[in-house]
Amino acid sequence: MTTKLKKIQVGPWPMNSYLIVCEDTGSCAIVDPGADIENILSQAKGTNIEMILITHGHEDHVGALTGLVERIRKPVYMSREDGDLFGIMYDIALVNNQQLVLGNTNIQVIHTPGHTPGMMCFSIGNNRILVGDTIFVGGPGKTWSAEDFSTTMNTMMTIVFKWPDETIFYPGHGPEGRIGTERPSFMSFINRGWSSDCYGDISWTL
Questions:
Q1: Does the global pTM surpass 0.85?
Q2: Residue 127: partners with Cβ closer than 8 Å, 6 or more residues away
Q3: Which tens digit of pLDDT belongs to each residue from 88-144?
């Protein structure tokens, strides 16, 4: 079983859309169609698109969703929390530890709240996880309140940094990172502590 992952930069931000492709069967999942439908579909040419996966409901990750669904008529999977919060139409609600089948590829769904209440990650095997805006190289996803940041840090301590050091994470913006590479800076941040009103764009080195 071989699972191919293709990153597609879309929009002016830019944002990372992804294709998950089971190379045994040609089955394909589109992850976070934020913009540039034609580019995404061009990159997916020759595959059998079966589903659209959404990590979270922010506009830069779903901006092209309606148009894409009109074009390909495939089911949309996302969390009920973000679907309801952002008013996004979807077909199947994702839940933590759910297993999705894409050809011969198994995709594990991991709930990582903080950046949004319904943030979902997708583990595709061989220590590769698509993380949306859960974590980036150098720090966590942006938060808009101290409560959200507290939720994010709980997610980091109980989920994300429980992953093996060799885990490669693929975020919604910027380059992929490695958990083992991020761990020392994260632990230094934990050991220094943070104020009760901390939130926003946070770096592990601040």
A1: yes
A2: 164, 166, 167, 168
A3: 999 999 999 999 999 999 999 999 999 999 999 999 999 999 999 999 999 999 999
Domain ranges for the chain: 3-129+166-175
- C-alpha distances (whole Å) from 159 to each of 49, 111, 112, 113 are 30, 9, 7, 10
Tokens of 160: 């994300």
Q: Distance (Å, rounded) from C-alpha 97 to C-alpha 94? A: 9
Could you count the other beta carbons within 10 Å of the beta carbon of residue 201?
Answer: 11
Residue with tokens 């934020």: 34
Which fold, 3-129+166-175? Metallo-beta-lactamase; Chain A (3.60.15)
| Residue 120, amino acid | M
Q: Map tokens 């994470």 to a residue.
A: 169
